[in-house]
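Usage

Read records sequentially. Each one opens with the input sequence:
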Amino acid sequence: MSRLGELEPVPRKSTVELVSDELRAAIMYGSLEPGDQLGEAELAARLGISRGPLREAMQRLVQEGLLVSEPHRGLFVTTLDESDVEDVYLARLAIERTAGKLIMERNRGEAVARLTDALEGLVEAARERDRVKMSDADQAFHEVLVSASGSQRLERMAHTLLVETRMCLNALQDTYPEPDDLVEEHRRIVDAIGDGEEERLLRLIEEHMTESIERLRKESG
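and closes with the structure output:
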């Protein structure tokens, strides 16, 4: 362990990690839409990289389930049907409930401080009534919730699920709750952690996910 204040090398992302981030963002924001085929030559040219790092990055996204490989056809952005959408939220429920339990066992104060900052971002986006900013802030809040658990594995799993959540919302924007309702849902989660009420926290997380499933069912039905 280094002495306090001693300078250390700053970790730098590899080309493969940077390309993976670019592709995830393109899928998350809808620049690459569900069902789109990824042309290797075109993407390499657009990103200004060789095909080697691009292939490795695309394989990472295949492993994450964001891309699918079809024999003799190539790689495509995954398409989520109604059952997939429900599965995404049920998986998120399992992860975020576990994260909530870990937070209550560990440093609640740190979690509340970090989540309060994330909530402010959501309040600002809701004030502007900007759907994209609200989605970004919503995702950031849930990333912090899982990160505050201290489990890197939960964090890794949640990251892919949150990208898939954005894919669902891109297709069904009308299902998003009203700005004030969205803020209130998340404020209650922070309050439950601050009050040390684990049972209430877990119930709120479950309601958040199940209500999202119901909204998506109504819109796609």
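Summary fields computed downstream for this record:
- The radius of gyration is 19 Å.
- The CA atoms of residues 1 and 7 lie 12 Å apart.
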